[in-house]
């Protein structure tokens, strides 16, 4: 069992910045299944965690390239540096574990949840329920639909970056 330690508080303004960032990504075509802030023990800092099925289709490098293009074109809020974003697939165990974080139950994919259920740890990321930015209804999309949505996202980023 992972030892639950004292959690660093989320800095003022981060939750609202995360919501603005998530909304801007959605407008571009990346509607993440789950977005939350987490404290990354390895770097001793908060990171924005985004769970998306685009990761399986395009990979982290391609997603990051699009994020940076949109960020540099001011299509994403400057309040969040793209270097603090962590992408996970909804098919990875960490993605599946985070998608199940809606109740205080210990998730079977790994991780620990506090006794009152307001806090969880997985893969060195410490999270509070109140840090969840958005959790959309999960619907498994087929490969063709993911491909179509990815191409639309790329096209939208290309338009704003032009």
- State the helix count: 4
User: Which percent range describes the beta-strand content?
Assistant: 15-25%
Give a short account of the largest sheet. Answer: 7 strands, mixed
CA-based shape = globular
Series of secondary-structure elements, N-terminal to C-terminal = HEEHEHEEEEH
Termini Cα gap: 50 Å
Q: Percentage of helical residues? A: 25-40%
Number of DSSP-assigned strands: 7
The low-confidence runs, each spanning 5 or more residues with pLDDT under 50, are 103-116
The rounded Rg comes to 16 Å
Structural domain tally: 1
Q: Would you tell me the structural class of the helices and strands?
A: alpha+beta
Mean pLDDT: 83
Task: Looking at this protein, list some descriptive labels.
single chain, 162 residues, alpha+beta, 7-stranded mixed beta sheet, 7 strands
In brief:
Helix content is 37%, strand content 20%. The chain is an alpha+beta fold and 162 residues long.
